[in-house]
UniProtKB/TrEMBL annotation:
Any one GO molecular-function label of the UniProt entry: DNA-binding transcription factor activity
Natural source organism: Ulvibacter antarcticus
Highest taxon in the source lineage: Bacteria
Positions of the HTH crp-type domain: 147-222
Listed Gene3D superfamilies: Jelly Rolls, Winged helix-like DNA-binding domain superfamily/Winged helix DNA-binding domain
PANTHER family: CRP FAMILY TRANSCRIPTIONAL REGULATORY PROTEIN, REGULATORY PROTEIN YEIL
GO annotations of cellular component type: cytosol
Keyword field: DNA-binding, Transcription, Transcription regulation
Zinc in keyword set: no
Protein name: CRP-like cAMP-binding protein
Transmembrane helix keyword on record: no
InterPro entries: cNMP-bd_dom, cNMP-bd_dom_sf, Env_Response_Regulators, HTH_CRP, RmlC-like_jellyroll, WH-like_DNA-bd_sf, WH_DNA-bd_sf
PROSITE patterns per UniProt: CNMP_BINDING_3, HTH_CRP_2
CDD domains tied to this protein: CAP_ED
């Protein structure tokens, strides 16, 4: 099982949290957030990147009409705000806690640049992560704009299989243990929760999938 934000089986939180480095440990504190608390807003100064110790964080932006567009939902061990590393001065998105016990490890851009200068392999992984995220976001936005809801659900299930899936040795089915709620997934693919539920139930009736709250099983016949 491999999360999309874990590079080469290395958990970024374990790699980057300043508590792992004596030079930064004394001056560092975790930040705690409740559900619906903003970690940063659009147009905030971008001076840090953030690692999730626990909980979940939603990344998105608002349209001129005030509608919320969700770009990503991240969970334990994942990194966000990383565009600050590339020189972004103002946030072009918001970050909001969607869990009542979210704990965040902030890392200054200066610290990140120091770590990247000291370790070329680590630096390459960070740039690889940023490029990967941009490509995935472009693909997801293209899907929302040009594909119907059923196609979007199928494609997102394939993404989940790549990120969190493993093959069940007894049946050959792909088992996906993921961190998302149905509401999370509906937001990510740009549809309503009732529409998402209807499509999932239709796929289940056709024996293509089976699912519970935190697990989706792609049948081998699919």
């Amino acid at each position: 099982m491999q999360s999309i934000w874990v590079l080469e089986d290395v958990n970024l939180f374990r790699m980057l949290c300043p508590h792992k480095f004596k030079a930064y440990k004394k001056q560092h504190n975790f930040l705690n957030y409740k559900k619906e608390d903003f970690i940063y807003f659009e147009e905030d100064h971008a001076s840090k990147v953030y690692l999730i110790e626990k909980g979940k964080v939603k990344i998105g932006h608002y349209t001129e009409a005030g509608d919320e567009i969700v770009k990503a939902i991240l969970s334990k061990g994942e990194l966000f705000g990383e565009k600050a590393i590339l020189g972004e001065e103002r946030r072009k998105e918001f970050a909001k806690s969607i869990d009542n016990t979210t704990s965040i490890c902030p890392v200054s851009v200066e610290t990140m640049h120091e770590l990247m200068r000291e370790n070329r392999s680590f630096s390459f992984r960070i740039y690889k992560l940023i490029g990967f995220r941009i490509k995935r976001l472009e693909r997801r936005l293209d899907s929302i704009l040009f594909k119907d809801a059923e196609t979007r659900v199928h494609e997102f299930l394939q993404e989940l299989a790549e990120d969190y899936g493993y093959c069940c040795p007894n049946t050959g089915d792909t088992v996906i243990k993921h961190p998302y709620t149905q509401k999370d997934i509906a937001h990510l693919i740009g549809t309503s929760r009732p529409t998402f539920n209807a499509i999932m139930n239709k796929m289940k009736e056709n024996d293509l999938i089976d699912f519970s709250r935190k697990e989706i099983r792609l049948k081998i016949s699919a």
